[in-house]
Specification:
There is one protein chain. Helices cover about 5% and strands about 50% of the residues. The protein starts with 14 loop residues before the first strand and ends with a strand. By secondary structure, it is mainly beta. It has a 20-stranded parallel β-barrel. The protein has a two-stranded antiparallel sheet with strand order 3-4. It contains 1 helix and 38 strands. It has a domain of about 150 residues.
Length: about 400
């Protein structure tokens, strides 16, 4: 790449601003401090000018490549048709700001990059790595860490892909999607091979959203939950819809591996594992409504959690738990089972089948395989079939229902 005469428009002390018509713009930081370009021109101003330059052309996707360390002291506002190659860039928060804002734009690609939140110096809970609204956004191979807020906070993402992302040691959530407004919702967002760990709240936090999928993602050692899927108030369309987790893992989190609660329709976990958490999976509606409708858990292992392997409570219907292994739970608190159904007055349309429940520890702790409690649930369309275990638990099944077929 050769320097274009347009580079003279920006003084080049500390930065080389290289323009090439076929390759876009490359900005290379020469000095170690990463902040000052020339007099009062800061590195983030140079980046913003490059984005504005290519964004205004509108002819094709503009490619901007950053090399070196950049101190970002003013929010970078992204534009349509921008491709940011940050594979050789280290971005350090240098002010009380969100680092990048998607700015309601379309067709944005961010590849690589190390986003350092510098939270020791900038410790307001509002400052995050990438925030805002965007359509057809791709974030691939990017690392977010040490933000006092969140690594990524999508307030209205649609038709977007987040893959190979790592988010850790943030004071709030690793990654969050939540619009807070029913008319503006996160929709059709795919997470693939993303890891979120050692965050102060949740690993992945999903609020008002629909058609969200996680494939081969991992969340561990977060202070609260690995995943939190949470809707709003019954009767108001503040719900999550159609959430899918496939081949995911959640472990070592302070509370739940997968928390699914209040206000949602249709969630599926396929071949997901949860171990070493407070509860493996916790599904909770509200006391007074069919607040969660459609929970499917197929395959996977739920084990060595402090409380239940899987727990359902209040306002849940159309449940299918099939082909899972539930073992060695109830590690930290007394009275929990492999699969617990509590507060079951509003429970209906439940299938539990082909479940293997056992305890193979030297000191057996998991009490029952599947526990519906002592309430009479006849007439609530509940079917339990093909439970197996090793006999090292108090009971394989407890419940008063007419359709129960148990295999010891």
């Amino acid at each position: 790449m050769t320097e274009n005469a347009n580079a003279a428009e920006i003084p080049s002390k500390g930065v080389r601003y290289v323009i090439n018509s076929s390759e876009g713009i490359t900005i290379m930081m020469d000095q170690n401090n990463g902040r000052l370009v020339y007099k009062d021109i800061l590195a983030d101003k140079v980046i913003q000018r490059a984005i504005n330059t290519l964004g205004n052309e509108r002819a094709s996707v503009g490619i901007i490549k950053l090399k070196g360390t950049f101190i970002i002291s003013k929010t970078i506002k992204l534009d349509n048709n921008i491709n940011l190659d940050l594979s050789e860039a280290n971005l350090v928060l240098g002010g009380n700001i969100n680092m990048f804002n998607l700015n309601g734009k379309k067709d944005i690609t961010i590849i690589g990059g190390n986003f350092d939140g510098n939270k020791v110096k900038y410790n307001s809970e509002y400052w995050s790595g990438i925030v805002g609204q965007g359509t057809r956004v791709t974030i691939d191979g990017t690392v977010f860490h040490d933000f006092h807020g969140k690594g990524i906070y999508g307030s209205w993402l649609s038709n977007s892909t987040i893959k190979n992302v790592r988010s850790y040691n943030n004071d709030q959530d690793g990654i969050m999607l939540d619009s807070g407004l029913r008319r503006n919702t996160n929709e059709n967002v795919r997470f693939m091979n993303c890891y979120s760990w050692s965050n102060g709240r949740k690993g992945f936090n999903i609020g008002i959203a629909k058609q969200i999928s996680f494939v081969s993602c991992v969340s561990y050692n977060n202070k609260e939950d690995g995943w939190n899927i949470e809707g709003g108030t019954p009767g108001v369309d503040y719900y999550w819809y159609d959430i899918n987790l496939i081949d995911c893992k959640s472990y070592g989190n302070g509370d739940c591996g997968y928390r699914i609660q209040m206000g949602g329709r249709r969630i599926t976990l396929i071949n997901c594992d949860s171990f070493g958490n407070g509860s493996g999976a916790f599904v909770r509606g509200r006391d007074d409504a069919w607040n969660i409708d459609g929970v499917t858990i197929l395959g996977g292992n739920y084990y060595s959690n402090s409380r239940s392997g899987i727990r359902f409570s209040y306002g849940v219907q159309h449940v299918n738990v099939t082909g899972v292994s539930i073992f060695n739970n109830n590690q930290g608190e007394a009275g929990y089972n492999g699969i617990d159904f509590k507060n079951t007055s509003n429970l209906a349309h439940v299938v539990v089948s082909n479940v293997r429940a056992f305890d193979d520890q030297k000191i057996h702790k998991q009490m029952r395989g599947v526990d519906f409690g002592t309430s009479n649930l006849n007439g609530q369309n509940i079917l339990v079939s093909n439970l197996t275990g090793n006999g090292n638990i108090i009971e394989l099944f407890r419940g008063i229902i007419t359709k129960a077929y148990i295999i010891q």
